[in-house]
Amino acid sequence: MRRAPQPLLLDLVFAALSDATRRGLLSRLIEGESTVGTLAEPLQMSLPAVSKHLRVLEDAGLLKRRIEGRTHYITANPKPLREAVNWIERHRQMWEGSFDRLAALMEQPPPEPPAKESSKPKKP
Amino acid sequence: MRRAPQPLLLDLVFAALSDATRRGLLSRLIEGESTVGTLAEPLQMSLPAVSKHLRVLEDAGLLKRRIEGRTHYITANPKPLREAVNWIERHRQMWEGSFDRLAALMEQPPPEPPAKESSKPKKP
DNA sequence: GTCTCGTTTAACCATTTGGTTAAATATTGT
DNA sequence: ACAATATTTAACCAAATGGTTAAACGAGAC
To answer: Which of A19, A81, A96 minimises the CB distance to B78?
Structure first.
């Protein structure tokens, strides 16, 4: 089944984040790659339910899936969160009238997320 | 570490932000207080529809309403956005492997935005 | 082959969402 | 008192959401 047209990506991201179960899944993915079954195991709901939640997150671009044999390996993908947080920060800071934290966010525009082993850019 | 879930409000905030019409309303409120009718006017939908959207935003704590006579004056309330952006930043930065901007976010709980020419508030 | 495993799809159900129009409410103006 | 204004509430509808169970699919194991 193909997806319907395209609702704005921001719509999908915020909608995906609006469910505590899905936020919980994302939280657990901080610890690294996992599988559908592993993710479902502690949750008190059926496997198809978890599968659906993962699909919502995937449609929002918040996770990537690597299928290997019969196992689906899931990892979090932070990229769409950038846009979401930018929207929020833009508004929050205009309302709060303090722009310096917005500036801090803005100073990282280059889309360069290559390193798996990350060099942590330290602030001098 | 496991953060005890604080589910309800975050659910409401993210759900409220997941609709482009509502985000548009919030954007327009950057320019200051407005009324229901004024907010509804450019939108191609009925007044009750706008009223419902405003209620969703209000339930999420994202706006405040000052009733004066028969007119409802609406202003944006950025406070709940703090929690939302904290959630996102916490996760985004863990996935992206850079923690310093998270630290920057975390170290500003007191509502004290004094200097316009700002340095980062230092914690010695 | 057959069986089990990991996962999705299908079909269904109840609730919520986003919209409508019509009516109600409350306030202001004449 | 009456009418106009600003907004909400009520009633309804279609579609989306979040869950279920049962069936299907694809890959390893025996």
So the answer is: A96
Which of B34, B111, B115, B104 has the alpha carbon at shortest distance from B75?
A: B34
Helices (H), chain B: 7-17, 20-28, 36-40, 47-59, 79-96, 100-106
Full domain range(s) for residue B102: 78-109
The tens digit of pLDDT for each residue in B19-39 reads 999 999 999 999 999 999 999
A51 touches strand D (CB under 7 A): no
Give yes or no: residues B68 and B87 share one domain. no
Chain A and chain B share a number of CB contacts under 8 A equal to 106
Domain-located, residue B117? no
B27-CA/C24-C1' distance, Å:
31
pLDDT in tens, B54-113: 999 999 999 999 999 999 999 999 999 999 999 999 998 888 765 555 555 555 544 444
- CATH number of the domain enclosing B67: 1.10.10.10
